[in-house]
Design a protein that fits this description.
It is a single chain. With 623 residues, this protein is mainly α. Helices cover 70% and strands 2% of the residues. The strands form two sheets. The chain has a two-stranded antiparallel sheet with strand order 1-2. The protein has a two-stranded antiparallel sheet with strand order 3-4. Strand 3 and strand 4 form a beta hairpin. It is globular and about 70 Å long.
Length: 623
């Protein structure tokens, strides 16, 4: 069971786990690229499918996989799934330079050659095999490699703070660990629970997910949620109401404490039901019109008003507990400059000081951005890529540790709002800044969660890091090969690859508007005011010991109401099941049930996508 974590960690990087890592890269990556080019979707469950396949093969051959090998196969495969489309990004950049959109906005000529080659021959011949590509590709991959080192370093920092010192629960990490452990252990009853849960999810997913994928028609229930706006709008104009229809969203409530689930639901309900109705009544929700669905209402109210309270309250929710308990920071910082005995087994001595590595590599990225955009204030670059980047990951890691959901700054027209704020604050006088490596994100908190899964699977985090960086260049090489093959078959975009033909022009218009214009979404007064109100409320709740999770409330503010409602419903269902089957039974098997739901959904969705992919491929063969 995952509750009992042994300190005797073994090396999961073996020849069998390496084959398990390479399998999805070689077999599933081409299908995932094709699927994206035709539908915009990805094979999101490939890591689950690969782990299941290799566990069964190893057992059939009489040499079962170890817990550590299973973790490496699953975790590295999942982490590398995002590298599938790396080289499509280069084609997107060249298409944007040559598009009428970029030329109309006067942007085509300001795109630097170190970002996208100007040679029109490459666009007509559809090839990466030209010296003009060398600088853009090498620079992009180099910056991406440095960004991943930054993320890993922050992952170790937050792991030390929130897992080893503060011991936050990280509920979703336990779900991932439960999948791995249940598949390889010998406890028959838990396997039955996993298989029955998987079967239930498969039947549900066939009715809800498979039908839209295979036929294009709606399933038994609409995805991702039922929309009840048309029922509540006559009584409460602007309010939204609905509930998630994805069984995995509802199952998320099985593993979250009641305070967390309830606080998240209150946050979403206060914002998108009560708050939106009040904003319409007060004339502050100017973009609202009758007939908007949940997603449209959410997006417009988010960008028009809630974005500032979300950032302000998120800062307080993430940083207040650290200020309240300064020993957490002091103990964590002290531990950053020495190797934990649990990490020594990884034999990567450079990780003795992840904070120093973070500072060095983030500084290199910042200096690189300054060299490529010399007329942009370097202090703003460092403020974004070092100061804010670290603070954002501290907030996000704490949110993952408490609610199982990350906290992040929203995107506007495909661009991160924090990056836009910095660029506009600097006057955006140097156009190169739009293409420079201003890296900021919550990847570090994701590594923190993965390190916690490694701990539960008794695997050294540094072995996981080593396996990832061993496989990363292979993933990039295969992305290069497969994307070049698809590009050689037909132009991207084209009728053969319809998704870029639909999506890329939309993204291009948004990108051109951002580069040539200015957004004024951030309101410092509202942001600071929200933070001060949040600080006072948090302090008063602590003073009277009121049972409330402020970080969960802040996460709920940033979450569409149907999702948080679904999680809250899942918690209520869990209470009912625990009442009839017993609290001890529920506590023992709830993570296994959630893992079975995820596995069953993944199998059905991936199988359906592959069937749809084959039908589209057969249609494209005559071309």
């Amino acid at each position: 069971m995952v509750q009992n974590v042994s300190s005797n960690r073994r090396d999961g990087l073996t020849w069998r786990s390496l084959i398990g890592i390479l399998y999805p890269l070689i077999v599933m990556q081409p299908a995932s690229i094709w699927l994206y080019l035709t539908t915009g979707n990805m094979l999101s469950a490939s890591s689950y499918i690969t782990l299941l396949l290799f566990v069964w093969i190893a057992k059939y051959l009489g040499s079962p996989l170890s817990k550590q090998e299973s973790f490496i196969i699953y975790a590295v495969g999942a982490a590398l799934s995002g590298e599938t489309l790396v080289f499509l990004g280069f084609i997107n950049g060249m298409w944007f330079r040559n598009s009428p959109i970029a030329k109309t906005f006067g942007i085509a000529e300001i795109i630097p050659e170190w970002c996208v080659p100007k040679n029109p021959y490459l666009w007509t011949k559809r090839t990466f095999f030209d010296p003009s590509w060398a600088t853009p590709i090498l620079l992009a991959l180099f910056f991406s490699f440095l960004a991943k080192i930054v993320d890993v370093s922050i992952g170790f920092i937050t792991y030390r703070m929130f897992v080893e010192v503060e011991k936050l629960p990280f509920p979703m990490a336990r779900v991932s660990a439960e999948v791995i452990i249940t598949l390889i252990e010998e406890e028959t009853k838990k396997k039955w629970v996993l298989m029955i849960s998987m079967l239930i999810a498969m039947i549900y997913s066939i009715m809800v997910h498979a039908t839209p994928i295979l036929s294009g028609s709606s399933g038994l229930l609409p995805l991702p949620w039922t929309d009840w706006n048309h029922y509540v709008e006559p009584l409460f104009p602007g309010a939204s109401l609905g509930i998630a229809t994805d069984i995995n969203v509802i199952a998320g409530g099985f593993v979250l404490p009641g305070i967390v689930s309830t606080s998240m639901f209150i946050g979403s309900f206060v914002a998108y039901f009560v708050g939106n109705a009040l904003l319409v009544k007060m004339g502050l929700f100017r973009d609202w019109i009758h007939g908007l669905n949940i997603m449209q209402t959410y997006q417009r109210s988010y960008l028009n008003f809630w974005i500032n309270p979300i950032i302000g309250l998120g800062l307080v929710a993430g940083l207040y507990p650290l200020v309240k308990r300064p020993n957490t920071i002091l103990n964590s910082v002290a531990g950053l400059f020495k190797t934990s005995s649990r990490w020594k087994e990884g034999r990567i001595t450079v990780l003795r000081s992840p904070f120093i590595i973070f500072l060095i590599v983030a500084t290199v990225l910042g200096i690189s951005a300054s060299i490529l955009a010399p007329n942009f204030p370097i202090w703003l670059i460092f403020l974004l890529t070092i100061g804010w980047h670290l603070v954002l990951n501290l907030i996000s890691a704490r949110s993952l540790g408490v609610t199982g959901m990350p906290f992040d700054v929203p995107t506007v027209m495909g661009a991160r709002l924090d990056t836009l704020a910095i660029i506009y604050a600097g006057g955006s006088k140097d156009p190169n800044i739009w293409f420079a490596p201003l890296y900021v994100g919550t990847g570090g908190s994701g590594w923190c969660q993965s390190f916690n899964v490694a701990r539960l699977c008794e695997t050294s985090p540094t072995v996981y890091v080593k396996a990832y960086f061993v496989a990363l260049p292979i993933a990039w090489l295969l992305s290069f090969i497969f994307v070049q093959i698809y590009w050689g078959i037909a132009p991207i975009p084209s009728g053969v690859y319809p998704w870029p033909a639909v999506q890329w022009p939309i993204e291009a218009v948004q990108r051109a508007m951002l580069i040539s214009g200015k957004l004024t979404l951030l309101n410092p007064q509202t942001l600071i005011g929200s933070a001060l109100i949040g600080l006072v409320v948090q302090f008063l709740f602590d003073l009277i010991h009121f049972p409330f999770s402020f970080i969960a409330f802040s996460t709920g503010l940033a979450t569409p109401l149907p999702s948080s409602f679904g999680i809250f419903l899942g918690w209520l269902i869990g209470r009912i099941v625990a009442h009839f089957l017993g609290k001890e039974w529920w506590d023992k098997y709830r993570f296994t049930i959630v893992a079975g739901f995820a596995l069953g959904t993944g199998i059905v969705v991936t199988t359906s996508i592959c069937v749809a992919l084959l039908s589209k491929f057969m249609w494209a063969l005559p071309y």
